Amino acid sequence: MQQQYEGYKDLADSLKSASTLLNLERKSQLHQDIITICNHLVNPSFRIAVFGPFNHGKSTLLNAMLGNRTLPIDLIHTTGAAITVKYGSDVRTRIMLVDGTEIYRSGTEVLQQFAILDGNRQMRKDVASVEVFCPHPFLETGVEFLDLPGTNDRDEQDNLIREQLLSADLVIQLLDARKLMTLSERENLRDWLLDRGIKTVIFVANFMNLLEPDEQKQVQNRLLFVAESFRAELPPGFSNLYRVDALPALRARLKGDVAAANSSGLAAFETALQHIVGIFQPNRGSVRLPRVQAIASQIQLSLTAKIDPIALEIKSFDDKQNTKVEIKQKAANLIYKGFATSVKELSDWLALPNLITKYQADAAVALAENNFKTWQTNTLKKDLNELQLSAMKWLYQAYEFFQEERPQDLLIPFPREPQVTLPPKSSNTDDLSEPGSIAVGGGIGWLLGGPVGAAVVGSISYLLNKNIQKQDEQLVKESYHQEVAKLCITAIEDYLSIFSSQGLSLLTEYEQKAEKVICFEFSQEPLEITNRREKLQQLQNGFNQLLRELEKVKILSNHQVYKEIPTYSNTNRKYSPQPERVQTSPKKDTSVKQQQENTAKNSGTRVESVSPPPPKASPSPRPEEVEAKFRDWELNEEIAQMKAEMRSPKACRQTSPGSQTSKQQNATQSNKAPNQPKTQTQKDKITRAYSILGLQTNASQIEVKQAYRTLVKKWHPDLFVNQPQLQKQAQEKMHLVNDAYTILSEQ
Fold first, then answer.
1. What is the C-alpha to C-alpha distance for residues 132 and 83, in angstroms, rounded to an integer?
2. How crowded is residue 509: how many other Cβ atoms within 10 Å of its Cβ?
3. DSSP output for 405-472
4. Helix (H) or strand (E) holding 172
């Protein structure tokens, strides 16, 4: 039993907590019901309330059951307070006032002062509770009676009665046989009892002795109908209708006349009452919990009425924030992908083997011809600038989008111009008959004059296009021209090595700095939303706790537990994309000689006319390479579109309750034909643009983009690099296609 009371105490605490969350008015009916039922849940006594309109004999019936005038008869018509009758060793009265004052008197005479209605038939405002103690065996078993004021007098009294009925384990409704079941009594049965889960009700008919025998029979039949129509929940075998003539029963008890008491119906009623209480009392939960269920249902409905609007408001805010974050994350990832690709291209370009392969021959020749500075500006610097700008554009795009740290320019400096110290000349310096000494141009050169300088240039080309590591071992003596050429080649290798090392180091630093640019900071949640989120969490916690306590006592509910709402951190957090970095090609420590060895052909063949090898024809790109280039183009377009969405007030409305409608509208609009221009010239240009793309004039923007994509894949000039005539046609075709797409995209 103690464990059961502990469970009821937890349930009572949850009900009170829920009441606090609802911020109910203290005088509201729901608040009063919660306080009453919570106190009743932990009350160990079994309470029986006597209930009915004024002048029905409630106090007289109680006095008859107690066997004395515990409740003075002259209070029958004027009871102005709920009087609780408990067990005590002698008759005494305790009255608690609202200000906390306790009035404790022997007997019940003090009730005349505190428990009656005033001259205006109103209850005293200063009385909190009235208790009477009486030495009766039935009360000693843990039973207490509750004598309620009469109904149908004033709203204030009715509210008190309605509240007190919740604290009764068993209700005795007293009926007047002379005016059986008025309309107000029927309404009270429904509103005050049935609808609030109070179904342990016994009907007692008074004043039957004042009716004629024929009338008594008619009234008895009507009483049976009333009793049977009420869904009372009493132990099997017990009736919910009894007849007791209260005043004759009281007189018989005061005189000790057992026969008269029996004939009044009191003895039979008391016997039934004691048996019913004996069954209910050990399991008071079966009586009290249905009242809790009715009240808990009201609380849950009130809580959901508060929770749902706040939850919807929070969800709308979170959806908008998530949309913004998703757009930013997508943009950051796209920008980072483009940046990583550009950095990879630059890193591959800076790899020493690649620099040597692409530039060593021309650079060495330029060095020999005293044109190195010009070559560096027109060739090496031009290629470097293109690659640097390709990487930098992504960071400036990130800064424009996120407004984080302003990026620095990537500036890879060139090393000092290479210097060559000429070796001393041998006696046969004018011999031009050795392999590689044939002039390839008319340059005078800055190392040696005349044909000798030209021979050095030729030797450079010769040396870089034969496997000098595997040449005939019998050729032990090199010509002076070849010796100078090797010095130029070595100087360029050193130059490119320094340039590669410095460039890759600066590029690594630049990548690290980029992390502070390609990122964004999550915006802080407004204080108002934070407060609403905390309020929502409190309401949901209170609701869930109440639901759990109801489940413990086997009270079913149609409601489900609220899931915990997502928290929102107001601390500064940054998002930096960290996708898998594009792997750069391994940087092999390949020497010039090894490079020459890998590229040399026909090492044993004597070359009569040597010139720098023509560039190899680039292989035709595969269709997937063209597709990749097109995706890169689209990537820029997508980021631009996201910028527009971020700036547009409509950007975050897509996740609002009407988002589906908005999406459908946008889809419909995107499939409509572009707006037609006003002038005939513009109309003709647009018609021709549709024709170039192979479309009808009512084609949608989606169809325009798809047609453009198809034509790019078909006519990309890179597909015809080894077919000059076709490549020229492709360039002209793509020029028309680009112009047509630009015209239609602006509509």
1. 7
2. 11
3. SPPPP------PPP--PPPPP-TTTT---STT-S--S----SSS-HHHHHHHHHHHHHHHTS-GGGS-
4. strand 170-176
> Which amino acid makes up residue 168?
A
- In the chain, the largest separation of any two C-alpha atoms, in whole Å, equals 164
pLDDT tens digits, one per residue of 82-140: 899 999 999 999 999 989 899 999 998 888 888 776 655 666 778 888 999 999 999 99
The predicted structure's pLDDT at residue 55: 78
Residue 426 is predicted with a pLDDT of: 63
3-state secondary structure of 153: coil
- Percent helix, strand and coil across the chain, each to the nearest 5: 60, 10, 35
Q: Tokens standing for 545? A: 């706790």
In 3D space, the residue among 266, 276, 260, 259 whose CA is nearest the CA of residue 244 turns out to be 266
**Among 21-30, 132-141, 331-340, 632-641, which is the least confidently predicted range?**
632-641
Q: Where are the beta strands (DSSP E) in 475-523?
A: 520-521
Q: Tokens 């690290």 sit at which residue?
A: 512
Distance CA 396, CA 178 (A): 97
Cα–Cα dist 155/330, whole Å:
66
Closest CA relative to residue 182, chosen from 214, 152, 210, 141: 152
Distances (CA, A) of 723 to 68, 449, 613, 718, 719: 125, 42, 21, 10, 9
Whole-model pTM: value is 0.60
**Between 603 and 654, whose confidence is greater?**
654
CA proximity to 350, closest of 232, 503, 224, 199 = 503
CB 176 within 8 A of CB 207: yes
3-state secondary structure of 150: coil
Q: What separation in angstroms does the CA of 58 have from each of 71, 163, 245, 574?
A: 10, 18, 11, 75
pLDDT at residue 416 is higher than 90: yes
Model confidence at 537, in pLDDT bands (50, 70, 90)? very high
What does the pLDDT read at residue 636? 62
Closest CA to 276 of 430, 440, 141: 141
Name, in order, each residue with C-beta under 8 angstroms of 229's C-beta and a sequence gap of 6 or more. none
- Average pLDDT of the chain is 79
- Say yes or no to pLDDT of 275 above 90: yes
pLDDT of 208 over the 80 cut? yes
3-state DSSP call for residue 636? helix
Q: How far is CA 730 from CA 463, 693, 694, 713, 734, in A?
A: 39, 14, 16, 11, 6
Interior angle at CA 669, CA 668 and CA 672, nearest 5:
90
Amino acid identity for residue 605 in this structure: T
The pLDDT, as a whole number, for residue 112 is 81
SS3 381: helix
- For residues 63 and 250, the answer to whether their CB atoms sit within 8 Å is yes
Helices within 574-723 (DSSP H only): 592-599, 623-647, 659-670, 680-692, 701-715
Of residues 607 and 30, the one with the higher pLDDT is: 30
Q: Is the pLDDT of residue 660 over 80?
A: no
User: What b/e sequence results for 176-194 when a residue is b if at least 16 CB atoms lie within 10 Å of its CB, and e otherwise?
Assistant: bbeeebeeebeebbeebbb
**What distance in Å separates the CA atoms of residue 743 and residue 747, rounded to the nearest whole number?**
7
Q: How crowded is residue 207: how many other Cβ atoms within 10 Å of its Cβ?
A: 21
Look-up of token digits 């005016």: 179
Supply the pLDDT for residue 419: 87
* Residues 413, 417, 418: CA angle, nearest 5 degrees: 125
pLDDT value at 438 more than 70:
no
pLDDT in tens, 661-686: 343 444 444 444 444 445 778 888 88
What ranges make up the beta strands (E) of 185-334?
A: 201-206, 241-243
